Amino acid sequence: MNLKKRILLLVVALIFIASLCVNSKQPPLPVPTEVEGWARNVSRNVRDYISETAQAHIMPKNFCEEKGLLLVFIHSKFDKFDARRAIRETWGQKRDNVTFYFLLGEDKNSHHEVQLKLRDESQRFNDIVQERFVDSYNNLTLKSITMLKLFHLHCSDSYKYLLKIDDDVYLNIASALKELTNRSITTNVLLGHIYNVTNAIRNPASKWFVPYELYPDEKYPPYLCGAAYIMSADVAVKLYRVALETPIFYIEDVYITGMCAKKANVTLENSGGFNCYYAKKYVCLYKQYFVYHYFEPRDIKKAHELVAGKKCPLTGSWQEWFYSLLY
Ligand SMILES: *[C@@H]1O[C@H](CO)[C@@H](O)[C@H](O)[C@H]1NC(C)=O
Ligand SMILES: *[C@@H]1O[C@H](CO)[C@@H](O)[C@H](O)[C@H]1NC(C)=O
Ligand SMILES: *[C@@H]1O[C@H](CO)[C@@H](O)[C@H](O)[C@H]1NC(C)=O
Ligand SMILES: *[C@@H]1O[C@H](CO)[C@@H](O)[C@H](O)[C@H]1NC(C)=O
Ligand SMILES: *[C@@H]1O[C@H](CO)[C@@H](O)[C@H](O)[C@H]1NC(C)=O
Ligand SMILES: *[C@@H]1O[C@H](CO)[C@@H](O)[C@H](O)[C@H]1NC(C)=O
């Protein structure tokens, strides 16, 4: 055989083997073009989900009857008992001028024991609001609109500010309060970590995948990172009114602090204390922040020991370097 023939044979063999490989593979899975729970035929009209008259499953006694500077709504999930315990024992401890409530939805599979445990927890701490929507990641926008509804109906005369925060965040609450009490203008405030330019993600594999039918533009309006943001009472009421007329978009922070805020003409304010992406859990290295995200309950406790116990070693000391390796 001459060289040309050999090469030809080799190529044919390779193509044959390659075709075997391709045929033996499963046909590729169909690429999802819809977001789970928000198919094209599902209503996105807020009024179909939010009722001002329906009774919540669980409501604290004397809800919002105290007055104060700050109302904190911690967005939790029905089964996150450990996260709530960690927060109550740390940054969510009772203090003057601040009230804490946990906001949850309902268990889609309605496990009876979980609900009993939840009622127990509520009797013990009187800080649980369980509203009437399925508690899922893709329903977080409904959770936030529910928060605005409750604030509008019961709390807007009692508190100057509303803080939305997730249950996997450590908050240095003393610093946050300092920032609030030091402000001269206390209305028209919407404060957090700004994302100025973000594209909607069109890759169906992403957690934040958005089909064109749900959001046709390429870019989102500027918005605040959803882990924690603060608004003044007037802004909460404005955002609620606008949300009632704005089709639900399942990415919570983009919807509330981006789309609704823009429609309500509320200007976003960036605060250096709110960070969003954050990998290292050793808070002493990042004293300038008061919001730390992606924390497990044990990270929250550890952070609190260091921050509230004033146990951070001096900046630049060998102890700081040493502990930063440990945590
Ligand atoms: C929407 O369509 C799916 C099939 O694509 C169907 O299973 C579902 O029941 C429909 N939902 C509503 C609310 O009509
Ligand atoms: C509560 O907040 C108000 C401002 O709204 C402030 O004047 C007052 O000193 C605060 N009280 C306490 C006990 O911190
Ligand atoms: C959101 O909650 C509504 C009301 O309970 C429910 O019908 C819907 O299935 C939930 N959607 C998702 C994505 O969980
Ligand atoms: C309070 O505000 C003033 C000016 O607005 C600023 O210089 C000062 O650093 C602030 N203090 C705190 C504790 O944030
Ligand atoms: C985002 O916009 C705000 C307000 O316009 C501005 O203060 C901030 O510097 C901008 N941030 C970035 C990263 O461009
Ligand atoms: C926002 O401002 C625009 C232009 O000034 C105005 O037409 C619109 O009514 C305002 N929206 C709200 C909710 O105040």
TrEMBL record:
Q: Under which main EC class is this enzyme filed?
A: transferase
Coiled coil (residue ranges): none
Known Pfam families for this protein? Galactosyl_T
Which species does this protein come from? Tribolium castaneum
EC nos = 2.4.1.-
Keyword Signal assigned: yes
Could you tell me what this protein is called? Hexosyltransferase
Its domain of life reads Eukaryota
Recorded topology in the membrane:
Single-pass type II membrane protein
State the Gene Ontology terms under molecular function: hexosyltransferase activity
Arranged from A to Z, the UniProt key words for this protein are: Glycosyltransferase, Golgi apparatus, Membrane, Signal, Signal-anchor, Transferase, Transmembrane, Transmembrane helix
